[in-house]
Amino acid sequence: VNRLDKLLNSDLTPYTDNIIAEYIWIGGSGIDIRSKSRTISKPVQHPSELPKWNYDGSSTGQAPGEDSEVILYPQAIFKDPFRVGNNILVICDTYTPAGDPIPTNKRHRAAQIFSDPKVVSEIPWYGIEQEYTLLQNNVKWPLGWPVGGFPGPQGPYYCGIGAEKSFGRDISDAHYKACLYAGINISGTNGEVMPGQWEFQVGPSVGIEAGDHVWCARYLLE
């Protein structure tokens, strides 16, 4: 193990009370994920224990250059499977300095809906499927496809096993374990119809928790 790997895999718990909190939010396109790291003086159990933070929204397509500050509000925390120890991932949503949700902050309105007593009394359950396709390292072509060509007809690949049917299982399995470590309510995974295509499922989850868990799972996959 070289020095870099040793440092990356080290658990700092015996040496400091400080932890690393990775603040995660959705960028201006509505599908891109952004993050930045912050040192916190002690382990935390709830997002209310974390400070708000800020970033330059003009660089993420979420604010004009002349008034670019956007404020991050911590909303959900997960254990960090990359840094391990007491380090955490923090799902945030986004506000102006005046406290108004910015236009790309869809979580704010969702939280209002899910906190309505009528909605709470219904205990709304959600199960969400996320499909994705793995690409080869050096070319923008799906994993398991011949470069510039196409695989055989569909049929063998869906929930398939074996080297000629299941491409990228190590990535799928690593992501599965990372989600379980983080505390994400991932309920399963499987190979999909196309070679190099996979799916994972989150849920059943109640209310807004479903969205927080899916976005954290997407962060881990990326």
Automatic annotation (TrEMBL):
The keyword Cytoplasm applies. One of its GO terms (cellular component) is chloroplast. Its EC number is 6.3.1.2. One of its GO terms (molecular function) is glutamine synthetase activity. InterPro entries: Gln_synt_N, Gln_synt_N_sf, Gln_synth/guanido_kin_cat_dom, Gln_synth_cat_dom, Gln_synth_N_conserv_site, Glutamine_Synthetase. Keywords: ATP-binding, Chloroplast, Cytoplasm, Ligase, Nucleotide-binding, Plastid, Transit peptide. Residues 103-222 form the GS catalytic domain. It is found in: Cytoplasm; Plastid, Chloroplast. It is an enzyme of class 6 (ligase). One of its GO terms (biological process) is glutamine biosynthetic process. Belongs to the glutamine synthetase family. This is glutamine synthetase.
